Amino acid sequence: MTTSTSPETRQRLIPAVPMVCALPIRLDDTVLSTALETLADPVRGLTAREGDYAGTR
């Protein structure tokens, strides 16, 4: 059994697929950069030095 999709549906899916795939990557980068800033903060964080987390970026 085969299903066919209309050309209009395919035209909408083509840009949607890379955008959906890029979303988790961008969210991960945002969370990681926020966490690193918090770790390095001398007041709120753990006062980590640059060498303590240099391998994460």
Summarize this structure briefly:
Helices cover 60% and strands 0% of the residues. The protein contains 1 helix and no strands. The termini are far apart.
Q: Which keywords apply here?
A:
57 residues, mainly alpha, 0% strand
Spell out the helices and strands N to C. H
Mean pLDDT: 79
Q: Count all strands and give the number.
A: 0
Largest sheet: none
Number of helices: 1
Described by the principal axes of the CA atoms, the overall outline is rod-shaped
Low-confidence stretches: none
- Rg computed from alpha carbons, rounded to a whole number of angstroms: 20 Å
Distance between the termini: 47 Å
Helix amount, in percent?
55-70%
Sheet-strand content, in percent, reads under 5%
Q: Which structural class is indicated by helix and strand composition?
A: mainly alpha
Description of the molecule:
- The protein is mostly helical and 57 residues long.
- 60% of the residues lie in helices and 0% in strands.
- The chain has one helix and no strands.
- The longest helix is centred in the middle third of the chain and has 34 residues.
- It is rod-shaped and about 60 Å long.
